[in-house]
Specification:
Blueprint: H1 11-26, H2 30-34, H3 43-49, E1 56-63, E2 66-70, H4 73-81, H5 83-86, H6 95-99, E3 112-114, E4 117-119, H7 124-132, H8 134-145
Antiparallel strand pairs: 1-2, 3-4
Helix pairs in contact: 7-8
Length: 146
């Protein structure tokens, strides 16, 4: 006589568990994900269109110790030719927060391009403050960043 297996140990359940384990193994580890520049978004796309498009892990490059991901090969090539053009100004810190005396990381999905540079506000409110007085906010932010 063959003993009955516990219901959770039957083949369909085991296959589901195996599939879930493989899916989790394919996800980047937090330390890798935290090293993605601009939250894994395509910096060239952010700069060019303002759209937060996710980069692909197979289209990455490393610059200044961070992994930059891109949605297309032309975007990666453009970045590699001139990374400073596409990298967020002020090290990715929120300009309005800096102007207020706080060092707060910006949110890439709120990116703003002003004077040919990309800035990352930390909130919708800070984005509005930056857009209302870009020259004043950026001057104060640059002074605070020194």
């Amino acid at each position: 006589m063959i003993p009955l297996l516990h219901p959770l140990l039957r083949l369909p359940h085991l296959l589901w568990v195996a599939a879930a384990a493989l899916t989790l193994a394919a996800l980047p580890t937090p330390s890798v994900a935290q090293n993605w520049a601009v939250g894994g978004l395509d910096a060239v796309e952010l700069f060019s269109s303002g759209r937060p498009i996710a980069g692909r892990s197979d289209l990455g490059t490393v610059w200044k110790g961070r992994t930059w991901l891109f949605a297309s090969e032309p975007n990666r090539s453009a970045f590699e030719a001139n990374p400073r053009r596409f990298a967020p100004a002020l090290g990715g810190l929120c300009p309005a927060s800096l102007a207020e005396g706080a060092r707060v990381p910006g949110r890439p999905e709120l990116a703003v391009v002003i004077g040919g540079r990309m800035y990352l506000p930390s909130s919708v409110r800070h984005r509005s403050i930056l857009l209302a007085d870009p020259d004043g906010v950026l001057a104060a932010a640059r002074a605070a960043a020194r």
